[in-house]
Input
Amino acid sequence: MDNIVEYMQGVGQAARAASRIMAQADTAIKNLALSEIAAALQNQSVQVLAANALDVAAAVASGLDEASIDRLMLTGKTIESMAEGLLQIAQLPDLIGAISDLNYRPSGIQVGKMRVPLGVIGIIYESRPNVTADAAGLCLKSGNAAILRGGSEALHSNQAIAACVQAGLKSAGLPETAVQVISTADRAAVGCLITMKEYVDVIVPRGGKSLIARISADAKVPVIKHLDGICHVYIDDDADLEKAIRIADNAKTHRYGVCNAMETLLVSKSVAEKVLPPLCQIYRDKGVELRGDKTACELLAGITPATTEDWRTEYLAPILSIRIVSDIDEAILHINTYSSQHTDCIVTENYSRAMRFLREVDSSSVMVNASTRFADGFEYGLGAEIGISTDKIHARGPVGLEGLTSQKYIVLGSGQIRL
Amino acid sequence: MDNIVEYMQGVGQAARAASRIMAQADTAIKNLALSEIAAALQNQSVQVLAANALDVAAAVASGLDEASIDRLMLTGKTIESMAEGLLQIAQLPDLIGAISDLNYRPSGIQVGKMRVPLGVIGIIYESRPNVTADAAGLCLKSGNAAILRGGSEALHSNQAIAACVQAGLKSAGLPETAVQVISTADRAAVGCLITMKEYVDVIVPRGGKSLIARISADAKVPVIKHLDGICHVYIDDDADLEKAIRIADNAKTHRYGVCNAMETLLVSKSVAEKVLPPLCQIYRDKGVELRGDKTACELLAGITPATTEDWRTEYLAPILSIRIVSDIDEAILHINTYSSQHTDCIVTENYSRAMRFLREVDSSSVMVNASTRFADGFEYGLGAEIGISTDKIHARGPVGLEGLTSQKYIVLGSGQIRL
Output
């Protein structure tokens, strides 16, 4: 590509123009496009798999690690689940144009809010090519145009999926430029995308912490992001110990490499002797390495001393740090100090402490007596999510269709003027 | 001040610590603080006026322009209205802690949202010292801590008002550091404030376009801003001409120097000959300079030709640009091209075109048959506003208490785990 800035400006202009049309598109047309894209993916699965095979072969040749290759690889089954995902998005209610809180004011005007798309969403992601279809679907249903920039190792796969997306848009009569997939591996494209304030309304980075940190530092466009998930479970004095063990087990061991897995377990000292020995037996049986503060090390055999660094670490692995606290105050202080404000849980039967925890813990999801693993757009009923925001501005927690929209004020009058 | 970075870091740390206490403060305590601050302003009005006199004398000596001195000057009446404003904020409902949409999910957990403060709000403003009290009141009621940085020419006035704010906070038992007024005129303080991401959650700049543009360009913290108000009134083919004249008159001439004043009038060609002559007579009688496109110049005598620059200009003065358009499509295209996305209005009796205008105009307030002058937090029923956002992210349109808050997800379970 000769001039990357010129290319990206062109992409941005086309996206802005398409966003005006997408904002007005009927629900039926948007749903038709989603089902046409799903059909295109199914009909062109051979072409998509062939393109993916090119990417996988190049990745193997270049010595990419196994986990990345695993994320890159598509199968007939993953293509089928991309198509199903799009059909599920078609089933979700259309939020655009919804008018709420339309009330009369003393001046005689009616004032309300109308839900509108954000405009143009830039999505930057790493190797998983299925994000191309998911993100396109969410942006389309929420009336936005999208500019997608996947990992360079997935370039052929993403282009093949993009061809299906564009075929679907075209067959529904929507502009093909409503979803554009960047066709260059040049990293400068990302630099343009995150600074084109005139053409891009928000950036959603999906991927590792370093990618997201880099994008956040350089972006001029607002970013909806989550950096990491250092999630806590606090077992309170009045915990039901059976629930506590079940939740603390599930939160850590259900899946290790996910952002809503527990990384630090806090236990009130009055119940530590009862709950920790059986719980740690479960962890040991599942091969979880345990690290603990001084008191935990005294209580439990064969546990490594934890350092302050442990409290700040998202392991994404079968490792758990354990701290014994004197009461809920120390637990909340620990969480508000070390948590990444993703998801934190208290296990308790005590009403007042449950209420205090809900109110005082400053995280995007705060739970009572439920596994942190529930922090997820699907489990919350959003239908699908574009990411989980640990910011407080605009969107917080799992971000579904609503997070990709805004509201404008509407005023209905009958000739009123300011006096 | 020896080390401005160190000073600002200290302010930031204190604000973050205070924000934790403010987030938990009872409604009654917050309202008490507001009324105590109002009382302190009334009791210490002599001291506040004396401090203000120092600033005004210095401003006169330094040759500051009259409009700025006017904005800087306090009187017994302005202090009284600051106190009244605080008492009005005390009357507004407390949004913090409100739980909404708490529903059961198939897994058995209940998922809802709880409204929470943003945390620490940085407010940067120009000469008006009354912003110190208004902004402090809004941040306090919404459970946030505030760092206020007023214009250097108002330093004594702001410190005197700050003393009242802190007396009120103290007397209600809240931390005095919940509202801090920067005590240095050094501009480097602003540079620190807008980049201290660890201590500041959002910046609200209030003032001229150049101040806001500079802050937006350099900020690392999210900014809630509006740059300018290039507002339009479009008189449609099916307008009630009496309403059209009334609204177009009010939108332009009610006040000239405000962001929700009309700057460009669009008129459908089918009604231009009827509506423009009487309307322009009103404008001429009020001393409004008229600039028009070619057709308008042909139709009306003594009107200056408008250039493209006029369509892009917020006059904030008795100047109006007029364009005659062929239909609503051209009107919407003009607005979506030149409007600053603040407030735009259609005057029509036609249902379909009213609905189209509401849906298709991409501005923070879109109106039918009402003066653009209604775009205001008080007129919309928000009670008070910290500013008007022309952004789409987080807050759009007049920003009241809700715009200074966020929502976190809460999950209430009874021992559920992910299967």
Remarks:
- The mean pLDDT of chain B is 95.
- Residues 36 and 171 of chain B are 7 Å apart (CA to CA).
